[in-house]
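Design a sequence for this backbone.
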């Protein structure tokens, strides 16, 4: 009698990793492994405790002072005695104050000029800096230097340069078509404040645009070049549409920054000539620390926060920024 033929393959052994169609409960391990994968992905995220220091810092130095300013706007306080409740007196005065209306108009005008001046220049420089030019790194580092200086130092520097008696503007002003007394004219003083602010903070927005331009897929430009599109058409049909959310981000930061100009105005113009550069932050300073009406100054500060927040929300709402779902521009 011969034994079984071992050269013939026997029946295949069932794979424990594969579900058995005859057993409905055999798919249970796969579902468990899926839940384990989800749990593993959640476990890889930082715990909320990591954000606690930032939340505490923001609450102490932003939320609490803002709440105190709002509360103080309903009081009368000279900075020495205890605050006295005044109801809506400060807010009623605010909407009837001619100086507040003029300061609000000047703040909006300064914001518009700053945005129109900084955005095109920063956008073009950022797109250029995102390229592979040989001198790009050196020029970008040099261009970034103004952002490293303090606003006070920059304002003092330009104030000395634009001094009509001792500054270099007296010598070179007539050569380049600038009146040496530019800080003495209403239009010239406001434009100078916008230029000085733009000169300092434009490198920051250039970095934002540079980062956004580097996220644009290179394949888009390659396809456009194959279709015969030149650099100008590529810029308007690829670069600008892809940077639309970057423009929104930069514009929001620019609007908030322009509405809070203070030290530049304080050092260079002191709100003058007359009140032609008295914007809302400087009016708040003059009301609170020169006339010691801190309750009304708090109302001005609260109104400034409301205006800046409203403008930012409107810009985000109508730009489509809130509907962005991708972490990469335009994708």
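Sequence:
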């Amino acid at each position: 009698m011969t034994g079984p033929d071992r050269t013939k393959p026997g029946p295949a052994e069932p794979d424990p990793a594969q579900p058995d169609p005859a057993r409905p409960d055999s798919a249970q391990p796969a579902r468990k492994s899926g839940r384990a994968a989800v749990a593993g992905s959640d476990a890889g995220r930082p715990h909320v405790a990591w954000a606690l220091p930032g939340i505490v810092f923001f609450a102490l130095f932003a939320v609490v002072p803002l709440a105190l300013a709002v509360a103080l706007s309903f009081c009368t306080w000279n900075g020495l005695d205890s605050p006295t409740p005044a109801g809506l007196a400060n807010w009623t005065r605010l909407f009837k104050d001619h100086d507040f209306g003029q300061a609000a108009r000047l703040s909006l005008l300064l914001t518009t000029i700053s945005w129109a001046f900084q955005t095109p220049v920063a956008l073009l420089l950022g797109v250029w800096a995102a390229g592979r030019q040989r001198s790009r790194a050196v020029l970008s580092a040099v261009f970034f230097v103004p952002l490293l200086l303090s606003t006070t130092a920059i304002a003092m520097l330009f104030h000395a340069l634009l001094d009509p008696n001792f500054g270099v503007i007296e010598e070179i002003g007539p050569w380049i078509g600038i009146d040496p007394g530019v800080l003495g004219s209403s239009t010239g003083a406001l434009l100078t404040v916008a230029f000085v602010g733009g000169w300092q903070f434009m490198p920051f927005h250039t970095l934002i645009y540079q980062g956004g331009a580097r996220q644009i897929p290179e394949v888009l430009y390659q396809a456009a070049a194959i279709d015969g599109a030149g650099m100008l058409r590529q810029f308007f049909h690829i670069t600008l549409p892809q940077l639309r959310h970057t423009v929104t981000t930069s514009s929001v930061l620019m609007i908030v920054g322009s509405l809070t100009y203070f030290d530049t105005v304080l050092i260079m113009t002191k709100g003058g000539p007359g009140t032609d550069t008295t914007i809302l932050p400087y009016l708040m300073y003059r009301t609170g620390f020169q006339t010691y009406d801190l309750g009304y100054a708090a109302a001005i500060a609260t109104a400034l926060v409301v205006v800046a927040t409203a403008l930012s929300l409107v810009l985000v709402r109508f730009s489509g920024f809130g509907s962005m779902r991708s972490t990469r521009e335009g994708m």
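The beta strands are 75-76, 84-85.
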